[in-house]
Amino acid sequence: MRVVGTVAELREWSRGVRQAGGAVGLVPTMGALHEGHLSLVREAERRGDRVAVSVFVNPTQFGPGEDFERYPRTFEADCAMLEREGVEVVFAPGVGEMYPAGAAATFVEVAGLSDRLDGASRPGHFRGVATVVTKLFAASEPERAYFGQKDAAQVAVLRRMVADLLLPVDLVVCPIVREADGLAMSSRNRYLSAEERGRALALSRAVRAGEAAFRAGERGAERVADAARRELESAPGVRVDYVAVVDWATLEPVERVEAGCLLAVAAWVGQTRLLDNAILG
Amino acid sequence: MRVVGTVAELREWSRGVRQAGGAVGLVPTMGALHEGHLSLVREAERRGDRVAVSVFVNPTQFGPGEDFERYPRTFEADCAMLEREGVEVVFAPGVGEMYPAGAAATFVEVAGLSDRLDGASRPGHFRGVATVVTKLFAASEPERAYFGQKDAAQVAVLRRMVADLLLPVDLVVCPIVREADGLAMSSRNRYLSAEERGRALALSRAVRAGEAAFRAGERGAERVADAARRELESAPGVRVDYVAVVDWATLEPVERVEAGCLLAVAAWVGQTRLLDNAILG
Predict the structure, then answer these.
(1) pLDDT tens, residue by residue, A271-280
(2) Distance (Å, rounded) from C-alpha A19 to C-alpha B67?
(3) Do B105 and A164 touch (CB under 8 A)?
(4) pLDDT in tens, A162-177
(5) A163 with B112: Cβ contact below 8 A
(6) Fewest Cβ atoms nearer than 10 Å: which of A137, A183, B66, B174?
(7) How many angstroms separate the CA of residue A11 from the nearest CA in chain B?
(8) Residue-range domains of chain B with CATH
(9) Residues B165, A101: C-beta atoms closer than 8 Å
(10) Which residues pair with B178 in a beta bridge?
């Protein structure tokens, strides 16, 4: 496994793969890897891709007062995990490599979608995500790129971006990976105290409650959302950010729930903001 | 010469070129071709590129009330010219091919630069340009792309965009091509009546006057600009849009002129807005 820090090295590797008739699979991450990330790597390998994993904590997707500074950085452990998975290349650029001109003038915005769900709570977040993913695609020229359904709004933003910009990349979305007790895996779970770790189960309970309502025949979006919201609101030390039932493509609220709709929740547990979701039906 | 209308065909050709060890040179145009466009094709061929020319009147770079509807469309003549030049592929997509989701949600913005010079006169223009060029690059994956210095502010916006987004494309900028009497070639020159055609020479006179002031030792940007502005203001039927002496990389005004600064003028001749410029020194 090679660890490269420059766009030039990554691109040279990627072009060599293509020249040899192979397909590059990119797994973009911010490091602090867990089984969710590894499931993306394994899916890429299952499809026969030669896999590059980027590890870059992208400053432009964090807002003022967010956790950019203290975001977990566990690069040695990340590399050890990736090497065991058979990853070929780890792309770990410095901020100066990804933003060579300093504060970048250029950004990519997915209008509308970027202001919904997490974008409403975190202004500018999806602009930062769309911009850095465009750059990672330009740097690695992958056939496929792998993202987790856990960040469901991000998936919607990036799908739209790829379609609109005609980018020659297939997005592959992999299921949420959970701890044994149901907690969706997240690098930010490391922030939780033991007490908070218990309280955080309210998110997966909320998603299951919404799913149960849908399975029981409920098709009113507000009532499906209410079933989820009740779980969050009844949990001590949990503050709801949003509970939403939306069209997964547009992130717009629906009134009637149909199969394929996204039930998404975000909540604060102490100082930690966590996400969970399910595709209904 | 092949005329293709889909991104898929263009991309397949481009990948075949690369697979065969060749380099793709893209010449993005809006059609209504003239010797300025052909000079870009010839420069691409001089460098050994296999040349694709895109012909697409991009709606998103026109503002309300601008000339999108009546922009000259001369596709048959364009193709005849390009075939004589040895172009391999003409990419002539419909609007639906370039904007498959209808009104595209995603745009590319080069903050700051996009609001200067033509961007100040034409709000949203450079956002449309940056977005469509990103898409044309994604569709054709060129090694090099060719642009005319005549659109000097566009060049600055696109250079910054390519650098910021880490796009694997070299921009090649070719000199302004002029009519025998000095008028910078432009597709919009077709709009001019015979009388306006004569009046339009004020733009190239203005640029020459600014250059002459610089060559005579003048280094005050305002005075270089004044020399140019006087030519425009003394011409009947010509209305100044802007006269600017700026850093070509940032499009920010300078006080002292140095070699490499951009002197750019835009003016209305009747209902037609024309551009001209020079790189000083």
Answers:
(1) 999 999 999 9
(2) 44
(3) yes
(4) 999 999 999 999 999 9
(5) no
(6) B66
(7) 9
(8) 2-174 (3.40.50.620), 187-279 (3.30.1300.10)
(9) no
(10) B184
